[in-house]
Write a structure and sequence with these properties.
193 residues, Hypothetical protein af1432, 10 helices
Length: 193
């Protein structure tokens, strides 16, 4: 199933690049997969990690994911996906509102599988930012809809959630949270000087 998911993700994200770079987006999905594999997550969690952005960033639906990869994978992908359009108004949801909704979901409703995929996703994101920040400095923030201050707020909120929820689940989530904390502190608390 992992190799089917990789093939599908490559096709689904064809032509997509990491923000402001010439790096194919699939590298992020492979990094998330690698993090989950290295931490001995089960196959369905790994597949959900590979597919975590499909319904956000491509025309594929959650029903398609369920038919192709099963209910559990689809449930995890659905749980970790940000809803970009308000279903009632049809309008785009603002960045800060989307992030607040995601944090609230992670705090109260997310199960362990969803937390693992989200933490692996955000860990790869912050490690990329850390690497690019060392090369480009504050220029890196121009790639995002939200600047350094807003990104700092978001990543610190995520860290607080992961830290709290890792006490509930321990194990892999606790390990990933430790790595995430180190990178967040480096980027947003002056550790990169």
């Amino acid at each position: 199933m992992i190799f089917r998911a990789i093939k599908f993700a490559v096709e689904a994200h064809e032509g997509h690049y990491r923000k402001g770079t010439n790096i194919p987006y699939i590298t992020h999905l492979m990094n998330v997969m690698k993090i989950l594999c290295e931490n001995n997550c089960d196959e369905e969690v790994i597949v959900a990690g590979i597919l975590h952005d499909v319904i956000e960033d491509t025309p594929y639906t959650i029903n398609f994911i369920e038919r192709k990869f099963g209910k559990r994978v689809a449930s995890i992908v659905n749980g970790v996906s940000e809803k970009k359009i308000d279903q009632e108004t049809g309008k785009e949801i603002l960045w800060n509102q989307r992030k607040q909704r995601s944090i609230k979901y992670l705090q109260k409703k997310a199960n362990q599988d969803e937390l693992l995929v989200t933490c692996a996703d955000k860990l790869d994101n912050i490690l990329s930012i850390k690497s690019e920040y060392k090369q480009e400095g504050d220029e890196v923030w121009k790639r995002f809809k939200a600047g350094k201050e807003e990104q700092g707020w978001y990543y610190k909120e995520l860290l607080e959630v992961f830290d709290k929820r890792s006490k509930e689940f321990g194990g892999v989530l606790e390990r990933l949270t430790g790595e995430f904390a180190e990178a967040v502190n480096d980027v947003f608390k002056g550790g990169l000087k």
